User: Fold these one by one.
Assistant:
Number 1:
Amino acid sequence: MKTSKTFSILFWINTSRAKNNEAEIYARITVDRKRVNISLKRKVNVDLWDVSKKRIKGHTTSAKQINNYLDQTYIKLFQIYQDLKYKGALITAQLIKANYNGEDENTKSIQDLIKYHSKKIENNLAAGSIRNFGITENYINRFLKKNKKTTDIYLKQLDFKFLCNFESYLADYWPAGHPRGMSQNTIMKHIQRLRKMVTLAYHMEWIDKDPFVRWKPVYEKKEREFLSENELTNMELQEFQQERLERVRDLFVFSCYTGISYIDIMNLTDDNILLGIDGSNWIFTQRQKTKTKVKIPLLGKAEELVNKYKEHPMTIVSGTLFPKITNEKLNAYLKDVAFVCGIKKNLTFHMARHTFTTTITLSNGVPIETVSKLLGHSKIATTQIYARVIERKVSDDMMLLKEKINTRKEFQAVKLNNSSSG
């Protein structure tokens, strides 16, 4: 681990708060231009302080005792710095102060945790997830600087109050260039990421208790938009004058019939199409986000789109099932697709995954357990966030229930009449 480049110790007296011409002595620790002050719990007559030597003037017993105490303090602070440097540990002015004040020097800090966690996930999570953790870490550092006036704290200092203050800080923070502050769900996401890091520290026994024990996340329930059957059909039948919009439409529709995300579609090749258990073509792939393997039967429309681009010049060059396009351009062009198709919704590529979940599968009677498997979710609870049972499905299910009840009543009536006749 990289150690600090600069370190200094300076003794000074706070003359601005002097009383009866006596001022308190402080030790100023500076590490890489970051400094903290330590009160030495000693006072001195302002007239006896030697500004150039940073010591007490004279040879009185009192002067010798204080100067000796300052020498011992200097040695102790320097030794703390040397020990941290020798161990290759994180060195900050705040941590040196904490060590001097009797804190356990083996205690891990929040910066230790951030660095360890970043190393741990660098090969295990998708690039987007790693980037999101980095954003959360930046907010943690800003919070420490603004509210704690430091760059680091010991993990033992994390408590329920810290979490509440961090939540309030995020609620009041207005990101530069954004039209508004963070939403409640965005705030919860940042705290959820902090919670994952702190839980890791707890499991590794870096802290004795979990500060999140009493903390409960509060999310705002939001309906996830999807295309209705009519909207999807209109999009499929729409003719485009610009070929790029047609390609973007086709990618979106393919996702609507497979539930495959943007990044995973971009990685699909002919090798991902294999014969499934029913003898028809399936997509065999692995989600980049979670590394979960998924097997998805190719519905008619999806297979039609695969065949459409088999001999396309762009796919021949890239070796992929579909032409390559960046996520930014894809979502930008989807706005044009929505306009041409007369769709008023805020069309994003991720909406295709919602459409697959709701319009294509659940509304057609596919069990949520099957949908969860197709989406590559490890928990059905995750699928339930995407899933929304539409009114038509509710109506159809209730009609079936009514038929069963009526059939049962008719059977009971016939049985009762036969009993009476006998």
Number 2:
Amino acid sequence: MNRMIALFGALGAAARYVISLAVPSDAFPMATLIVNIAGCFVLQLIFTWVRERSGLPEHIVTGMSTGLIGAFTTFSTFSCDNAALFLSGQLGLLALNAGVSLIGGLAAALLGLWIGERLCGKGERAE
């Protein structure tokens, strides 16, 4: 299992780095916002759909969730970005970043849950 976490962690960290290069984040930490919201969606989808329906061994699913998404998302960078916005007096951007991150992350997780349940055949109305 440790190998899977390390392997998927390397992939997640590399994906995070590529996004940080591709998305300009000079005035606003957009790359961090994108990876964290996307990570909330994908993690919930893994827990809802992949774990239940993929038939993948548990060590692969753990590698995907803990390794891939754990390395892809970043609470520490989110916190440092907000501290920098605070120290530079950009309180409006700090509030925007924190609010969009929290509400967007929750919305993304709920969307991942909703899609995952539908892929599993749950949540459909009986006729």
Number 3:
Amino acid sequence: MSAPREDHESAAAAPASLSLAGRTVLMSGGSRGIGLAIALRAARDGANVAIMAKTGEPHPKLEGTVHTAAEQIEAAGGRALAIVGDVRKDDDVRAAVDATIGTFGGIDVVVNNASAIDLSTTPDVDMKKYDLMADINVRGTFMLSKFSLDALRQAENPHILTLSPPLNLEPRWAGLHLAYTMAKYGMSLTTLGLAEELKDDGVAVNSLWPATLIDTAAIRAMPGGSTLVRAARSPRIVADAAHAVLVRGSRSCSGNFFTDEQVLREEGVTDLTGYSLGAPEGDLIPDIFL
């Protein structure tokens, strides 16, 4: 099977029986990039998608708001709920959970997408950035998952999916950017712990990470970012992999640290060239932590 070459197609498109139609997804972040791609993939099935993000008004440097994301979700065939909120704030997260349940009747899927990044070394990292990464990445992931548990336990096929890497304890990753590594691994530890804690409840808890660099606003904003994205893949590859995970049975798919390539291989997708943004497969930049 070949990967898609158009945005409206899906490499990991599942049979009709393996669909997110009618299911409710609550996502942190998602105004743009990978999160929005995942939301749009779910919307094409006819899912309900609640997006909680801080960007309620246009940002001078970043494209998209929670409201423009909601418009795209509905245009793609889903039902959308735009929630302006900060994943670091307890009241905002609880309100997002309550609003999602109140609007759609429950929660089937939680996607922990919101994340902050700073690849500075320890001497150079600003402590406000350290706190931001710890609060959004670790605390935000833990809290959105925690506050959604009662609703997830009532769902037919409940999933928590966190965009975080495998727990690779090779010292180089801690040595390169310790603050960021701790923040991302905190997200992954949440996957590890919740998968074990919730296994008898049938709530699937998994992490998903790109095998290569992905074209996102965060990458483009980095020094040399416009050059880097030429050796990256489209966010659609992560979206198609996320969809493939979220339609699997929750009791038989939990505690995994997937890469997008791994998931798509399991779905029978062998040609990923359609996701590349120009560079040959052999010239793509591998993602960190792998």
